[in-house]
C-alpha cells in the first residue's frame, strides 16, 4: 500500500529524478483493435518487436482519417527534455510523415509551436530520440499521411503502432538528498523515478533533506510513502535557506497524519521532512519526493518566461517583477532602468562622489567617468592627492616648494617664504633660476628686500618681492 502526498500547482523542479515521466500520466489514442491498447506504449519491454499485447495499435482504415496517440500528465505540466519512440519493427512506411508535438490542449490535430515533423526524406528510423526542452501538458503523436501496402496492393489510412514511448526529464540530476539516520535502504531510492523502490530509515526522530542547490520560488511538494511509514506521529515540513539551521526556517506543514494536499509559497533552497514520535522509534519509507515551482530563472503559468536578467534572485511567478530587488546599478519593477542622475549601487541609493568632475558616475560601481576635480584621485575620487602632487587627477608636482608641500588643488606652496634651491621665489615656486644657488642665498635676498622696503615705511607686495628676487 502506498501513501501519496501530492500537490498540483506549477511544475516539477530539479529534485525529481524521473528520467521517464510516463508513470505519471495516462495514454489514449484515436482507436484500438484486438488489444492494442494505448497504455501498452508506456509499459515495458523497451523494444520494436510487435505483438498486440505489448504495442499500441489503432484501427487500419481505408480512408484518410488521421490517427493519433496522446499522453496526458497527471500533475498538469512537465518539463520535457526529449522523447524516445519505438515504432513497430518492419513498418517504417506507416510511420512516414508523422508529427510529435508538445501541447497544452488535447486537440487534434495538435496546435503547437513545439512539433517535430518527419522531413519525408525517406523512411524514418523506427527508433528515434527527439529533443524538445520545453513545458507541456500533453504529448501527441499524430499521423495523417497513410501508407501504400505493396503486398496487399492497397492504400491504407494513417495507423499508429507504438511499442514503447519514453518521455524524459533529467532536471533532477542537480539536487542533493540525505536522510538521518542513514537507514537500511539508500536515500537515492527516493529520487530514482521508480515509486516501487523506497529509501528507508528508523529512529526516535527521522529526517529527510532536499538541497535544491540554489534558491527558488516553490509552491508545493509531493511525496509517495511506503507502507511501513508511521502515519499517526508528528509530521513536519520545513523550508529554509541554511542546511544547519533548518528548524528555525518556515514550517510548511505540521500535523499528526500524512497530508493529502499542501499549498504554500516560499523562497527556499532546503526542504526538510521530519517524522517524530513519543514511542521508542518511528519509521520512514519514502518512495518518491518532488518539489513543485519554477526554477529561479523562470516565471509564468508553465515557467516558460525568463526572469529579467538584472533581478536579484527569483522573480514573481505571475508578473515577472523582481520582487527581491535588483542587482547593483539597476532599478524598476523589472530592473530595466540603470541608475541615473548622481546615484549608483544597490537600489540606486548611493550618491556619486561630489569630487567627480561630472555629476554622473558609473551606475554600478560609482566610478567617476569624467575624472576628478582638482586635488582628488582614485576611481571614485575620494582620495586626496599625495604630498607633492596637485591639480587634475593629481598629475602636477610642486617640486619647487619647500618639502614638496603645496595646496593639493592649485599647487600654492605651503611655505610662502621661500623656495627650494634652483627655483625662483613666488607663490608656486614653479620657475627654475638660470643658475642654481642654495637656500641661504634665497633667504638672505628675501631678508635684504624686506629691509629695503620697510625702511621706506612701505609694505612690499608679492610683485615687488618677485622683482627684487629676480634682479
Automatic annotation (TrEMBL):
<protein>
    <recommendedName>
        <fullName>Multiple epidermal growth factor-like domains 10</fullName>
    </recommendedName>
</protein>
<dbReference type="InterPro" id="IPR052108">
    <property type="entry name" value="MEGF/SIB"/>
</dbReference>
<dbReference type="InterPro" id="IPR008979">
    <property type="entry name" value="Galactose-bd-like_sf"/>
</dbReference>
<feature type="signal peptide">
    <location>
        <begin position="1"/>
        <end position="17"/>
    </location>
</feature>
<keyword id="KW-0732">Signal</keyword>
Amino acid at each position: 500500500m502506498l501513501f501519496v502526498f501530492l500537490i498540483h500547482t506549477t511544475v516539477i523542479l530539479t529534485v525529481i529524478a524521473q528520467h521517464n515521466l510516463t508513470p505519471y500520466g495516462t495514454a489514449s489514442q484515436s482507436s484500438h483493435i484486438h488489444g492494442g491498447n494505448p497504455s501498452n506504449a508506456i509499459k515495458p519491454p523497451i523494444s520494436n518487436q510487435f505483438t498486440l499485447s505489448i504495442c499500441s495499435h489503432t484501427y487500419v482504415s481505408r480512408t484518410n482519417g488521421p490517427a493519433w496517440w496522446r499522453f496526458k500528465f497527471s500533475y498538469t505540466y512537465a518539463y520535457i527534455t526529449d522523447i524516445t519512440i519505438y515504432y513497430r519493427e518492419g513498418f517504417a512506411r506507416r510511420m512516414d510523415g508523422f508529427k510529435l508535438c508538445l501541447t497544452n490542449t488535447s486537440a487534434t490535430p495538435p496546435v503547437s509551436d513545439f512539433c517535430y515533423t518527419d522531413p519525408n526524406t525517406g523512411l524514418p528510423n523506427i527508433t528515434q530520440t527527439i529533443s524538445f526542452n520545453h513545458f507541456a501538458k500533453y504529448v501527441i503523436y499524430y499521423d495523417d499521411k497513410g501508407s501504400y501496402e505493396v503486398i496487399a496492393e492497397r492504400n491504407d489510412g494513417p495507423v499508429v503502432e507504438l511499442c514503447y514511448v519514453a518521455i524524459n526529464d533529467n532536471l533532477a540530476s542537480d539536487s542533493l538528498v540525505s536522510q538521518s539516520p542513514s537507514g537500511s535502504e539508500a536515500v537515492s531510492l527516493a529520487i530514482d523515478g521508480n515509486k516501487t523502490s523506497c529509501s528507508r530509515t528508523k529512529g526516535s526522530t527521522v529526517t529527510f533533506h532536499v538541497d535544491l542547490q540554489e534558491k527558488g520560488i516553490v509552491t508545493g511538494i509531493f511525496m509517495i510513502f511506503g507502507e511501513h511509514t508511521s502515519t499517526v506521529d508528528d509530521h513536519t515540513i520545513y523550508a529554509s535557506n541554511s542546511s544547519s539551521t533548518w528548524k528555525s526556517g518556515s514550517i510548511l506543514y505540521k500535523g499528526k497524519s500524512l497530508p493529502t494536499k499542501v499549498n504554500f509559497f516560499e523562497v527556499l533552497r532546503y526542504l526538510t521532512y521530519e517524522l517524530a514520535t513519543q514511542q521508542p522509534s518511528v519509521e520512514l519509507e519514502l518512495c518518491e519526493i518532488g518539489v513543485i515551482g519554477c526554477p529561479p530563472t523562470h516565471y509564468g503559468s508553465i515557467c516558460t518566461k525568463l526572469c529579467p536578467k538584472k533581478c536579484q534572485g527569483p522573480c514573481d511567478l505571475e508578473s515577472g517583477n523582481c520582487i527581491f530587488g535588483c542587482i547593483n546599478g539597476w532599478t524598476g519593477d523589472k530592473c530595466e532602468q540603470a541608475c541615473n542622475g548622481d546615484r549608483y549601487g544597490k537600489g540606486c541609493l548611493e550618491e556619486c562622489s561630489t569630487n567627480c568632475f561630472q555629476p554622473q558616475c558609473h551606475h554600478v560601481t560609482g566610478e567617476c567617468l569624467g575624472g576628478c576635480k582638482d586635488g582628488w584621485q582614485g576611481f571614485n575620487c575620494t582620495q586626496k592627492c599625495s604630498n607633492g602632487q596637485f591639480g587634475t587627477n593629481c598629475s602636477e608636482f610642486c617640486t619647487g616648494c619647500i618639502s614638496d608641500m603645496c595646496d593639493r588643488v592649485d599647487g600654492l606652496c605651503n611655505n610662502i617664504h621661500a623656495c627650494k634651491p634652483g627655483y625662483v621665489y613666488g607663490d608656486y615656486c614653479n620657475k627654475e633660476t638660470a643658475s642654481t644657488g642654495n637656500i641661504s642665498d634665497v633667504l638672505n635676498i628675501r631678508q635684504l628686500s624686506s629691509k629695503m622696503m620697510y625702511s621706506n615705511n612701505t609694505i612690499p607686495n608679492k610683485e615687488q618681492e618677485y622683482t627684487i628676487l629676480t634682479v
